[in-house]
Amino acid sequence: MLYIVIGFLWLSICLYLLFGGADFGAGIVELLTFNKRDKIEVRQIMDSTMGPVWEANHMWLIIFVVIMFVGFPQMYSLMSTYNHIPLILMLLGIIARGTSYTFRHYDVINDNWEKLYSKIFIYASFLTPLFLGIVAGSAVSGSINTHPTNFLEGYVYSWLTPFNISVGIFTSACCAYLAAIYAIKDAAIESATQLVLIRKSKQMMLFVILSAILVFAVGMYSHLPIINWIYKSPIGTISVLLSVLCMCLVYFSLVKNKFNFIRFLAASQIGLFLVAGTEGHFPYLIYLKDGSSMSLLKDHGADKTINCLAWALLIGSCLILPFLIYLIIAFSRKKKATTH
Amino acid sequence: MNDFIAARSQMALSLAFHIIFSCISMVMPFFMAIAHYKYLKSGDESYKGLTKAWSKGVAILFATGAVSGTMLSFELGLLFPKFMDHAGPIFGMPFSLEGTAFFIEAIALGFFLYGWDKFNKWFHWFCGLLVGLMGVASAILVLAANAWMNAPSGFNYINGQYINIDPWKAMFNAAWFEQALHMTIAAFAATGFAVAGLHAVMILRKKNVSFHQKAFKIAAIVAVIAALLEPLSGDRSAKDVAKRQPAKLAAMEAHFHTEPYTPFVIGGIPDVKNETIHYAIKVPGVLSFLVYSDFKTPVEGLDKIPKEDWPPVPIVHYAFQTMIFFGVLMMLIAVIYISSLTWKKNWKDKNWIYKMFIYAVPIGFIAIEAGWTVTEVGRQPWIIYGIMRTKDAVTPMPGLQYSFYLFSGVFVSLGAVIIMLLKRQIKMVPKLYDTTDPNYSPKK
């Protein structure tokens, strides 16, 4: 039963990155599009891609948090204590972004207010995954100091390290990359919008590669065994290789204008990378500065709680998944019917 | 402001904010579904317009409710990590089920908002209704989790250890039903009065009158039914609180000394130092009757409770009085409105009826906020009643007052923006939603 809960924990963070992340990415792509006309095109297509599903995408994070505090309460309370500041900033980002998106989407009058919501939306879209990445980085890089002698050591340097920041940038880059790729298929074939999106996708791919190199470089410089995390086991190595292969295929699709599998390929690329990164750590989720660590297999809630949680997740997913898949398929089909 | 007070204030503020939006986004889908049903049955286009107008409101408020709810799930850990460390595995079950309900709600909302003329009309209608049903389910589950803090069960607390954990027992704790019932009905009453009042404003301004009258009627009828049911659930709640949390009931009534024929106290200023209450109206025996169904049995007073376990008596007392006052007011309005529909038909469509509803816009929500103050402040000094004190649960992170100021700013500005947005929605009714209006042209 514990493995079911851990499976859902992984799945929720992966799906949040793949779906919710793409929502953030929509704002980041808008932020990184400097040409005014392109910006409008990008915005319109992103809105129509996100619209029906964005409330649902957001839910994966809630599922993740709930699994953490029900199943792994010690880790949850430890992260909440020492990552208080980045979590608060991430929360502010989530609030600002979610509400400003809704406001600009549902506000019935177009005037200067809309410019304000848009500004809030695009900056919050960048900052939220940045802090999400910083928090994730701090969990795995052993920067959390649970015996601080002063405020800075405990509540600032626990997360504010060059490595964690580079993980944050990488997370934002992945989100932007996914958003750009996902939207390509929703634009009319060979339209100006699609050309803009193809260009954007290539740029975002470069952003992902550069930020990944940054993560490695900073990781090596900070004496983190980053190579071991990924190449320690065959699964990690194979995942990385497949992830690179997926990226190459995405690049070919972009060059050849063949977009049938492009969403799947891009999602697989990021998903496989997450497999590699987390597999290297399993079963440890949090490393602390004093060298100790917290394991998913040991530091969990009472057995009965884990059992109940596993059943709740299984039953919940039986109700949710068919409905969610129908939502995604139904709207992408309807969209196709209207664009052709 | 010290860190402990800052943490509590931030939590209180977040909850107070979240409650309003979650209540509205839980109840309005039902209004929407009623209007939608009327449209599907009668083909009357103005009901379609009304459904769409309300659904935009639902979308805006749902998003706000969702983000403030996400915030709360983080804040529990950020502000009270020691509480979550112990309580998470015990009372977390309803939260994980709530995740499912909320997820389905979000998916159904996606179908509903973007599904006009795209799906089978009854499937589309059902998705709208599902938003409401799942909203109610979420509310009940969250309330079950809160009720556990008032009536902790599903574990043994031995030598500071929480053992023999049973999450199902914790979820179906002694208080869950009373709290869920009382709050759900309150949400219907408050939202009903607020929505009816807003449409009443437009009726009195003579703008799109028939459109707003249709809306008014749906909201007002739901509101009055809920307002009449609420005291019954309140009675159940009070009996339950008397049994489980005598300190809370005693503070609600500022009832310092245990005595037979315990009076029901109306108004007054509690004087905690001298353990008395000034200027109050006391109706002898009524509290005994309400709690034990006989006038003589004494209700336990604060004198039976160690002083360090007393909740802040004045706050709880004033909050309780406020809740009762506005609850009774809503009942009165309900009776008058029902009269106007039945035996006093000449009152119908009178301006004063609409005015009455306009004044009633905030009262349901004031009653709800007061009720929550009673529940939460009345539980103090405990975070888990009788087990863990709130001060032992707070985070060691210093400087929490800055976070409190920051979030206060966020809430105030969010509140302002939402009011502005809803105003703009209402302003656009003739153009976007009222099919009978000459300016009607529904394409953004």
Q: What would a concise description of this structure say?
A:
The complex is a heterodimer of chains A (340) and B (444). Chain A is mainly α. Chain A has helices at residues 2-31, 36-50, 54-71, 73-82, 84-106, 112-140, 151-156, 162-184, 192-221, 226-231, 234-256, 262-281, 303-339; strands spanning 284-287, 293-295.
Total domains of chain A: 1
**What is the number of strand segments of chain B?**
8
- Average of the residue pLDDT scores of chain B: 88
Report the sheet-strand fraction of chain B.
Answer: 5-15%
Distance between the termini of chain B: 48 Å
Average pLDDT of chain A works out at: 85
The shape of chain A is globular
Tell me, briefly, the overall form of chain B: globular
Biggest sheet character of chain B: 2 strands, antiparallel
Q: Tally the helices of chain B: what do you get?
A: 15
The N- and C-terminal alpha carbons of chain A lie at a distance of 47 Å
How many DSSP E strands of chain A? 2
The largest chain-to-chain contact, stated as pair and per-chain residue counts, equals: A-B, 62 and 70 residues
Membrane topology (chain A): Multi-pass membrane protein
GO molecular function (chain A): electron transfer activity; oxidoreductase activity, acting on diphenols and related substances as donors, oxygen as acceptor
Pfam family, one (chain A): Cyt_bd_oxida_II
Organism (chain A): Rhizosphaericola mali
